[in-house]
Design goal:
Elements (H helix, E strand, L loop, with lengths): L1 E4 L2 H8 L6 H8 L9 H15 L2 E6 L5 E10 L4 E9 L8 H14 L6 E6 L4 H10 L2 E12 L2 E11 L1
Parallel strand pairs: 4-5
Antiparallel strand pairs: 1-2, 2-3, 3-4, 5-7, 6-7
Helix pairs in contact: 4-5
């Protein structure tokens, strides 16, 4: 597996198939990108977070050249913490270690910058598979917020997780 920058014109048609329903979409982006996922709306959102937070989007590519994962990354220069956001893995390869491998590479890439002392991410605890994946890489819970997000008749918490250099 390798990590490369996301190219919306080449990669969008692949990643849009990974979100098959509104609830999965909300788990991925907490409604920050409108559902259903559309190319121009994603392009605009990625441009906004690049300006606002310095986010860069990446994809994970398997050994056959297929895009199998997506995430955004930014660095907070005040706290020296990197942040992974909008992590998503192709549904057809979930449960096969792809997500864990992608997150390990993302963390390794972040720590290649000597300024980075830790990497954080947020996950809904209700997304137990994702949370277990992050724990398997070495992330630990730093803070939990109850009822951080409402989706229809559900209320989801927010778990901030951290891995240190």
């Amino acid at each position: 597996m390798k990590i490369r920058l996301f190219n919306i014109d080449d990669d969008f048609d692949v990643i849009k198939t990974w979100i098959t329903d509104e609830r999965t979409h909300m788990m991925w982006c907490a409604n920050l990108v409108p559902y259903p996922l559309e190319k121009e709306k994603l392009r605009n959102f990625l441009s906004e977070i690049a300006v606002k937070f310095g986010d860069s989007p990446f994809v994970a590519v398997d050994d056959e050249g297929h895009v199998v994962g997506f995430y955004c990354y930014s660095l907070n220069h005040e706290t020296h913490e990197g942040m992974l956001k909008f992590v998503m893995v192709d549904a057809s390869v979930r449960g096969k270690g792809i997500g864990k491998e992608m997150i390990k590479l993302a963390v390794r890439n972040a720590f290649s910058d000597p300024e980075v002392i830790a990497v954080q991410l947020n996950v809904f605890p209700e997304n137990s598979r994702a949370k277990r994946c992050y724990e398997g890489v070495g992330f630990t819970e730093r803070q939990n917020t109850l009822d951080a997000f409402k989706y229809k008749d559900e209320s989801w918490g927010r778990c901030n997780m951290l891995i240190k250099r």
